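Consider the following input, taken from an annotated entry for DUF7993 domain-containing protein (Natrinema zhouii).
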Amino acid sequence: MVDNRITDGRRIAELLSSEIDGREDGELAHFAVTNADRDVEPTADGARAYDVTRHDERIARAFVHEDRAHLEFEAGQDGAAEAASDVDLRVRPKATQPPKTLVFVESGAEVKRATDVLQEVSRRLEEPDA
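Applying the prediction step yields:
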């Protein structure tokens, strides 16, 4: 049996970028991929591949590793953590100032779940006390 699971970090980030830029449904209509580094090479700690903006404001950055990608949320961190947990994506806080939330996308199959996280963060940012 052939294993078709995509676990190349750069390819996962490309798939995620295509979903963000290509879909105009729901909250994804508000998102764009910006400042892309087309020559990014994966690193153990993750190399920045592109920014994810919502209404021209950066809310996350995408990073590539050899075997996965991750989103580093700068806005909506609590919502990102809850939404990622709800769709079974690995998540962890990043103790920086200001704090950030990392959401890991470890296969091509997880890309749709990562866009679900982005959409939930967007909905929460629209709430009056977000």
